[in-house]
Amino acid sequence: MNKIEHIGIAVTDLQAAGDLYEKLLNTTVYKIEDVATEGVKTAFLQSGPNKIELLEASFADSPIAKFIAKKGEGIHHIAFEVDDIKAEMARLKSEGFILLSDEPKPGADNKLVCFVHPKSAGGVLVELVQEVR
Asked: Own/partner pairs for 31-36, CB < 8 Å, 24+ apart?
């Protein structure tokens, strides 16, 4: 894993959260995107080398809606950049980690993604991300 690629934050109102984080980080939202495969609408902000992904549920029973209903708004996941997502998935499976998909899926911000189940990662939802080439 090369670096932390972004931190995902679950929010109920993407516009209001975007306004808040723009003020907090003194930067602007640079991209808003729907990710149908995950049932989420995302907004990205960047401060220096660090990125924040705000996540709003697209429908009532999406994973983000369920997360917010259970835990409230807040940090949802941490994403790590990888060079070869399939190789990293295989490595993690061989180490005993539980992956939430067998193949990488298209994600936001021109990435392929795969999530590691929090039960096998110390209670943290981990996302692997690889730039689509």
From this structure: 31/108, 31/109, 33/108, 33/109, 34/58, 35/106, 35/107, 35/108
Is pTM beyond 0.85? Reply is yes
> Cα 49 to the chain's mean position, in Å?
16
pLDDT tens digits for 15-33? 999 999 999 999 999 999 9
User: Among 90, 88, 81, 75, which Cα is nearest to 124's?
Assistant: 75
- Cβ(89)–Cβ(128) under 8 Å? yes
Measured distance CA(111)–CA(90) in Å, rounded:
18
Report whether 80 contacts 97 (CB < 8 A): no
The alpha carbon of 23 is separated from its chain's Cα centroid by a whole number of angstroms, namely 21
Q: Give 25's contacts (C-beta < 8 A, 6+ positions apart).
A: 45, 47, 52
